[in-house]
Amino acid sequence: MRSRWLSLGLMIASLGALPAAAQTCKSAIADSDLVTPGKLQMSINPTLPPQQFVDEKGELQGLNVELMREIARRLCIPLELIRMDFPPMVPALTAGRFDGINTGMFWTEERSKIAYTVPYAQQTISLTVSKGSTAKFADVASLAGKKAGVEVNSYQERWLRGEDKELTAKGGKPIEILTFKTATDVLAALRAGQVETAVLIDQTAKEIERRGLIEITATGLGGAPTTMMFRNKTVAAKVAATLTEMGADGSYDKLFDKFGLTKAPSKTFAIRGPGPQ
Fold first, then answer.
1. How would you classify the pairing of strands 214-230 and 116-130?
2. How far apart are CA 167 and CA 129, in angstroms?
3. What is the pLDDT of residues 234-267, one digit of tens each?
4. Which end of the chain has fewer beta carbons closer than 10 Å to its terminal beta carbon, N or C?
5. Which phi-psi region, left, alpha or beta, contains residue 151 (left: φ > 0; alpha: ψ -120 to 50)?
6. What's the maximum distance between 2 C-alpha atoms anywhere in the chain?
């Protein structure tokens, strides 16, 4: 099971929305707005089912994969998804290695100043334990003095550290926070007994609980929008307009219902925040 979600390092998978030779429409994005002319390149961390994961055939699957394929199809541009771990994504984006990030990131004001962010869904956080565990963490306060595993450089880590700071300021025991490269690694640490709880985004936690590997003891914590990020404002605006089109014709709802993920509160999508300063 672990191999299904394990990030395979930096790999490129061309998931062509439309092969160049088969295109019958004109691309809505100019070559001058792209890192590599003629194709839209997006990074993805395929370790978070059902948002994005690798199936038993080694192929990318999930909501974010299908959503980006449909956006690229409507923009009439081939899509290339670059598989990589999450920590280097933002530095690689700002260095101009690809056009955007499509991995279900939480939106933050700080990120909205680094690149052009387009929120497209909602997300919250769950506390989980190994299947059959007697531990029942009902809230963050119950983690005082416990070992908690979380994906490094993620919104979840930032949220957990903020909660820990508040707990200790009130005289509580600090949470022992252990960070890991991917959510798959966090789960492996939980199952190995290295941590007592795995702090995961809700939809991933629900999917892994469905597979009988963990139990959710608290959910709906630290809610925030999830976002795509883009280096180019025009590309971000085109994607936002396409999402709005999908919201109007029902295809957005259909896709989110298929994967059971939480929809954005509004079906009008736009760049949020000032972008790079």
1. antiparallel
2. 21
3. 999 999 999 999 999 999 999 999 998 899 999 9
4. C
5. beta
6. 65
Yes or no: say if 56 and 193 are a contact pair by the CB < 8 Å rule.
no
Residue type, 235: V
Q: What confidence tens digit (pLDDT) does each residue in 119-167 have?
A: 999 999 999 999 999 999 999 999 999 999 999 999 999 999 999 999 9
**pLDDT tens-digit series, residues 1-46:** 444 434 433 333 433 444 444 457 999 999 999 999 999 999 999 9
For residue 39, the number of C-alpha atoms closer than 13 Å in the C-beta half-sphere is 20
Q: List all residues 6 or more positions away from 79 whose beta carbon is below 8 Å from its beta carbon.
A: 14, 15, 16, 17, 39, 40, 42, 68, 69, 72
At CA 4, angle to CA 14 and CA 98, rounded to 5? 30
If you search the block for the tokens 């798959």, which residue do you land on? 184
| Radius of gyration for the chain, computed over Cα atoms and rounded to the nearest angstrom | 19
Does this model's pTM top 0.85? My answer is: no
3-state secondary structure of 19: coil
Element (H, E) at 229: strand 214-230
Helix, coil or strand: residue 107: coil
pLDDT at residue number 24: 77
